[in-house]
Write a structure and sequence with these properties.
The protein has 138 residues and is an all-alpha fold.
Length: 138
């Protein structure tokens, strides 16, 4: 539906190639930096984007407030995912079989590599929280 609106109404985005946005990662990074500097989400157009999912930019703004480089912030998210995945695999191994724990770990690693790790987006936090929810229901 977005593609249709882009071509009919000639909508453009700041991080786009020929109309539709390529990635929201630049937007979430901007939201985090703006919030770290001002404790607000800025002007209306940026504010509307940032308030879609405010938890991720607020958490990242803590890292920017501490003057951490973006590479280190990305490593922190990867470490958090690895820590939660490690605990999940331990609990699955205790209550189920090794084969099921390998299947669970491969599934979550595939999801992480597809949606979370290579991007600086809200999906990174969503996957970690989803894994914690999965862990809770075991």
């Amino acid at each position: 539906m977005l593609w249709v609106a882009v071509f009919i109404f000639h909508i453009t985005f700041a991080d786009s190639v020929g109309g539709p946005p390529v990635s929201d990662a630049a937007g979430w990074d901007s939201c985090s930096q703006i919030f770290a500097a001002t404790q607000e989400f800025g002007i209306d157009s940026i504010k509307e984007f940032c308030l879609r999912r405010p938890i991720f930019p607020i958490l990242n703004s803590i890292f920017y407030w501490l003057n951490l480089p973006i590479q280190l912030i990305t490593l922190i998210w990867i470490f958090a995912f690895g820590l939660v995945l490690n605990q999940t695999i331990k609990i699955v191994l205790i209550h189920f079989s090794k084969i099921f724990s390998m299947l669970v770990s491969l599934t979550w690693i595939t999801i992480w590599l597809r949606y979370g790790s290579p991007q600086f987006m809200t999906e990174s936090l969503g996957i970690i929280l989803g894994l914690l929810g999965f862990l809770y229901f075991l």
